[in-house]
Structure prediction request, 99 residues.
Amino acid sequence: MTESTTADLDVPAGASPKTVAHVIHYRRKTYVTKPAEGYALLKRVRTLLRDGTTDLVPLTHRDGFVWLAVGPSIPIAIDEIETDACHTESHTLKRLGLG
Prediction:
């Protein structure tokens, strides 16, 4: 078995993965957003959970807009999607339907 290196994948040395999208899992639905919207949602969710309050939070995603009720008793998961070592940012965005 051979090892792959970044040189084999035509990726510049020292290049680190970049967050290109966020995937939000909320009440049996999945929303894909660009990083700016994802980070804004993440910041608001952290504040609400820290304060123990529930509120409506706006989310702009690839298919439109939705209001999410966010609070301590409402399950939500937010995943960061990074570029793969062997793919470009545009390729990753296209796979997610954002490019």
About this structure: The beta strands are 19-26, 29-33, 55-61, 64-70, 76-82. The CA atoms of residues 49 and 72 lie 5 Å apart.
